[in-house]
Amino acid sequence: MVSNNTSVVALLHGPDRPGLVARVAGWIFERGGNIVHADQHSDADAGIFFQRIEWLPSANGAAADEADFAAYARTLGMAVRVAASTRRPRLVVFVSKFDHCFHDLVLRWKAGELAGDLVAIVSNHPDLGAAARGYGLPFHVIPVAAATKPADEARQLELLRELGAELVVLARYMQVLSADFLEKFGRPVINIHHSFLPAFAGGKPYHQAAARGVKLIGATAHYATRDLDEGPIIQQDVARVTHRHSVDDLVRKGRDLEKTVLAQAVRWHLENRVLVYGNKTVVFD
């Protein structure tokens, strides 16, 4: 008997045409599955259809449904990603010295809010080692310097391979990952940027915001790409500010945003709710 706790989740996208929703639902019905959630979106300008569908698997089991549905979706011209809801990707968090996003993510993970396994913390500084070990998490220090960056990143990549990492989360990690690192890792990397991108990219965005006298500040979680702060955006949020707020006030308010925005992006990714196409995302929240 199939456990009611296990469902199959599929994310698919491809050329839009009539009948796709019916054909997908029909395939699941004919197999004896039961749809528990379905959502879709069409990009009329690009002519692309997107869908997230979740179902209780047939008597054949989740693994069989995963493989068979992936093959079927490809016959419809769809790119597809399929996973059992019980699958827990292995994630590694990169940190430097700022600790607010680090603590927030770890506590959410320990509370069971994240559908993945946090297997290690990696840092270019030793500062958060005691805190990580206090949470019972392995802590690895790999210093990164401009003159030795290729070798330093090679050590990071070797460690990620040893850990079986499937997702890296940059929790205010204050180093830019090289294009070579991202290509060789070949798995998603989620970054939190402390501004409402594309405004105030780069360093010290709160100082830039204060200098411009903006009335809104924000935070942006996005996938890291070779183009700094330009990867597909997963989640954003903002807070109102006034002329009375100092840079320190903006930093304090911004850190609250950074925690919630990063946690939401990681949660959506782990729950297979994010579809990337081009430099954009469709998020089935």
Walkthrough of the structure:
It is a single chain. The chain has helices spanning 20-30, 62-75, 100-110, 129-134, 149-163, 179-185, 205-212, 247-270, and strands at 8-15, 34-43, 48-56, 79-84, 90-95, 117-123, 139-141, 167-170, 189-193, 216-223, 233-240, 274-277, 280-283. It has 285 residues and is an alpha/beta fold. The chain has 2 domains: 8-84, 2-Layer Sandwich (Alpha-Beta Plaits); 90-283, 3-Layer(aba) Sandwich (Rossmann fold), CATH 3.40.50. The strands form 3 sheets. It has a 7-stranded mixed beta sheet, sandwiched between helices. The two termini are 30 Å apart.
Compile the SSE list and pairings.
Layout: E1 8-15, H1 20-30, E2 34-43, E3 48-56, H2 62-75, E4 79-84, E5 90-95, H3 100-110, E6 117-123, H4 129-134, E7 139-141, H5 149-163, E8 167-170, H6 179-185, E9 189-193, H7 205-212, E10 216-223, E11 233-240, H8 247-270, E12 274-277, E13 280-283
Parallel strand pairs: 5-6, 5-8, 6-7, 8-9
Antiparallel strand pairs: 1-3, 1-4, 2-3, 9-10, 10-11, 12-13
The tally of strands reads: 13
CATH class of the largest domain: Alpha Beta
Structural class: alpha/beta
Counted by DSSP, the helix tally is 8
Low-confidence stretches: none
The H-level CATH homologous superfamily of the largest domain, spelled out, is Formyl transferase, N-terminal domain
Main sheet attributes: strand count, strand direction, barrel closure: 7 strands, mixed
Our count of domains comes out at 2
Return the average pLDDT rounded to an integer.
93
N-to-C span: 30 Å
Amount of helix: 25-40%
Inertia-based shape: globular
Spatial extent as radius of gyration: 21 Å
The H-and-E topology, N to C, reads as EHEEHEEHEHEHEHEHEEHEE
- CATH architecture group name of the largest domain: 3-Layer(aba) Sandwich
Tell me the strand percentage band. 25-35%
Spatial order of the strands forming the largest sheet? 7-6-5-8-9-10-11
CATH topology of the largest domain: Rossmann fold
